[in-house]
Amino acid sequence: MVSQRQKLARKRYKEANPEQFPKPEPTPPKDPNKKKKSKFKRKKADIKEPRISNKSNYRKHPLRVPGMKPGESCFICKAQDHIAKHCPEKAQWEKNKICLLCRRRGHSLKNCFNKIDETIDKKLCYNCGETGHSLAKCPRPLQDGGTKFASCFICNERGHLSKNCPQNTHGIYPKGGCCKICGGVTHLAKDCPNKSNRDSDASVGVGKGATENERPRGQVTKFVSGDELDDDFMIDDTSSGNKDKSSESKGGPASDFKDTNANSASGMAVVDECKLKFLELKAKRNYRFIIFKIEGQEVVVEKLGSPEESYDDFTASLPADECRYAVFDFDFITVENCQKSKIFFIAWSPDSSKVRMKMVYASSKDRFKRELDGIQVELQATDPSEMSFDIIKARAL
User: Fold this and answer.
1) 3-class DSSP state for residue 283?
2) From CA 353, how far away is CA 361, in angstroms rounded?
3) Which residues form a coiled coil (predicted)?
4) Is the pLDDT of residue 236 over 60?
5) Residue 31 covered by a domain
6) Average pLDDT of the chain?
7) Is 203 buried (19+), middle (13-18) or exposed (0-12) by CB count in 10 A?
8) Average pLDDT of span 140-164
9) Strand partners, 234
């Protein structure tokens, strides 16, 4: 650093020798009319030669097609380089359209020749016959089912819709089928009027070997959340103060909720053999793995693996198209050269299994796992690659 004494010495030397320190010349003012030169210069070859656009070889990416989102395609020909508006097969597709008024092919309701009333293009209330609002927003009470001014597309008569037309045997199922609850063809299963009756019958135990007359009268059954909102539900009687009587229906699964071994989510009971075999695996190390299976309304032991069997023998014992519960005792050596073991609980649910089986096993998993005290690692697998030996080893460490 320069000290104060050195600064004073330089100042005195500058005053004594001014000829050695000439004053700098002042800079001239900038000319406002002078253009600023660019630092980047173009080559002469680029200026003379015009740019050649090669549009013939240029092809747009399918995700950059205007009016099309990424992953979508033309719904007529399934191509990804254009939308349905510009499809070359649109004319042929238009010929197969069915008019909703005259039921003929080749045109739509908008271009129908038999369309005389202009109210077809507007919202027409089937209940009061006025335009401007639909049947769902009609302020007047429903008369004749709310279809007094509706016109049928099949028989061209007023007073009913096509789904209630006597000439239409398929209803709202043009390719055949019916409601899964009552067998009707005028509504879907989600809108079935008997849906609430079926749910109440299932909750009080009306099923195999039981009739509707055997169901207790004067009860309202509702589901109250238990320990877990996903799969734990219990039946609660709101009409009477005695809750024990509501669970004593004939032949129903409501009595299973009193059992301490019962799964309150799906009515699955756990056999005592499952607990005993698991305790032997945990304490005595008599088995390498245990595979459990749901039979009827209870969880039973399907197969026991000896201590000499390996992990490959365990994976080969699991069926390829059915769900199972399994417990595997995995021995490993840590980085510190210590031998340890961990008990894995594996929920095997392959994609090829039935949907009902997947739902039953998924709803009973948590409550069944609570019965097996001592599980350290849980694994959910839908494919053999999701429960490979490397994944088991990584989860253990």
Assistant:
1) helix
2) 11
3) none
4) no
5) no
6) 75
7) buried
8) 78
9) 224
Task: Tell me the residue type at 96.
Answer: N
Strand partners, 348: 324, 381
Task: Specify the pTM.
Answer: 0.37
- The token pair at 113 is 């020749």
Q: What is the pLDDT of residue 28?
A: 82
Three-state SS sequence of 167-184:
CCCCCCCCCCCCCCCCCC
Residue 276: which of 286, 262, 266, 265 has the closest Cα? 286
Tell me: do 304 and 364 sit in the same domain. Answer: yes
What domain range is 172 assigned to? 123-135+144-192
The 10s digit of each residue's pLDDT in 201-229 is 555 444 444 444 443 333 333 333 333 33
Position 14 pLDDT exceeds 80: yes
Least Cα distance to 301 among 320, 280, 283 occurs for 280
Q: Do 128 and 108 belong to one domain?
A: no
How many domains does the chain divide into?
A: 3
Average pLDDT over residues 299-317: 92
Query: What is the rounded CA–CA span in Å between residue 64 and residue 264?
Result: 53
317 phi and psi angles, rounded to 5 deg: -80, -15
What pairing do the DSSP bridges indicate for beta strands 289-295 and 298-305? antiparallel
Distance CA 299, CA 364 (A): 9
The reply to whether 169 and 274 lie within a common domain is: no
User: What SS3 state is found at 261?
Assistant: coil
State residue 235's pLDDT score: 40
Structure tokens at 378: 């849980």
Q: Are residues 369 and 327 in the same domain?
A: yes
